[in-house]
Queue: 3 jobs
Job 1
Amino acid sequence: MFNSTLSGLKELELARIVQESLLPKGKLEIGQYRFYGFSTMQCQVGGDYFDFKVRDNNCVEVILGDVSGHGLPAALVVAMAKSAFMLLSGLESLLPSDVLTKISQAFLKILNKLKMMTCFLARIDLSRHKLYCSNAGQNAPMLLDRSKEVLEIKIKAFPLGTRQKTNYQNEEVSFPEGGWFVLYSDGVVEALSPSGEMYGYERLKDSIKANCGKSPTLTVEKILANLKAFTLEVPWADDVTVFVIQREEF
């Protein structure tokens, strides 16, 4: 039994190493834009996923998703999602909604509704400063402008892998100079204080207003520190991911 347990632990550790390799390392800087994200898992392997892909000097694709459940099954679905994202996001003929539709169809065929994934996908045109977005049940990202006004990009749709017929929509949003775009998983807004109060969207919005301003790396660190100050000794019950994109002012 001891050897079996040890073998299982080694397999989980290997799975953790593999999953960490699926997430981007460090930050990305291209033109006026700066990208940085951080994900922390509440067990050795989890279900949160974020990524970015430079298609050319004028276009970057970004994604943030959350697979239902935790552990090895969720991590395997994350690996599937990354493979599909890397394959499909480089195809110029596909809009973000088309990419989500194809991933959803693959999940439905392979997973047969045993697992689902919420997912937000955006294509950033770096020359026109436009976001082309689509969403599959993921929390609405927040876009902060220089005046500290926050726009929540709300696009309602079902998660990936849940419906035969999908109707994912595309939305075009201007990325203002000096603006900040914040993506996050539900583990952020659903984290609890010692009294059982949820962190929620308004606290996150206030944290974004207060902490966006220097670099995406520092902004992510401050948002997570603010979350930790709220939850104190209460462990985060879910994986937590924050992904920040900045358009610098010239």
Job 2
Amino acid sequence: MQAYRRPGIAAAQGKWIAFLDGDDLWSPGHLESLQRPTDKTAAIAVISNLRLESRTGHPLIDPAVLPQGVDDYFTFALSSGDYPASSSSIMVRKDELFAAGLFAEGIASGEDIDMWCRLACRGPFFYNARLSATYTGACSSSNRAAAPIFAQRLPGLIGDGRVPPALVKSAKRYANFLMLEYARASYSRRIYGSACSPA
């Protein structure tokens, strides 16, 4: 996936980049609703809610969660579905994608989670609460446990001092969560033959 994303991002001429995975869908007005907060906030990324077909169309984030600025993405993630940003439900400033190093190469899964974590260290996000994207698969790199190589990257950012001091505590909690998710998924694979937990 990274092999296609990198040249696509480089070729894009707009200030903002949105992604749509091949098996996902956008509702009418999705891009407009992501664009709207960018004129009024300092957000470097905007997230919509995501409909999960594998959960009979239920939203990823509780509909009771209101639109809000997200200064601490790690705390927001742990309280709002664990993986609130999907590659098909986020729009990011192009310059910030480059400044954060783009999507990492050599990661079999979890490369998008890694990208959102690095972006979260660079500036605030905004959550618009609109249910305007649909994930049609059973499990994706956004909602399955990260591979070990990725699970070590957030602690590495913390150790290198690249996580702002105000976010270190919540980043550590999120890093611990990712390791627990990897352990859970490994157990599921052994018992059920799948990286995703049974429905």
Job 3
Amino acid sequence: QRLLDVGEYRGFPGSIESIDCMHWEWKNCPTAWKGQYSRGHQKPTIVLEAVASYDLWIWHAFFGTPGTLNDINILHRSPVFDDILEGRAPKVSYSVNGHRYKMAYYLTDGIYPDWATFIQSIPRPEEQKACLFAARQEFVRKEVERAFGV
């Protein structure tokens, strides 16, 4: 509930924070596995998918997938939605522009699919409201990237 309250205070009612992936260099990757964990001529990496909040607390971590996978491939292997699929997701109810919603969402970057549980920025905002939304969404979404840097 605390995450939902903070999300609403920050202008994102129904938000349960940000999700993203990062590649972690694997210095001691076995030679036989390097092809599976390396992109092209880059060094081998292991991927961490995380959901992080404004206070840099990591609420979900899925670690160990090969570095050749992108965020979408990892999402399809991730247990991040297990609670929703098993009916254990928190009950939410909020209203935006006169529409009532009952599903929480994550703030994401542009690679994530167009699912109801993901809110992305506006790629090329033109109107003032769209520009404000894009700036705020990108600022709040980057909290997960800040958590990676800690």
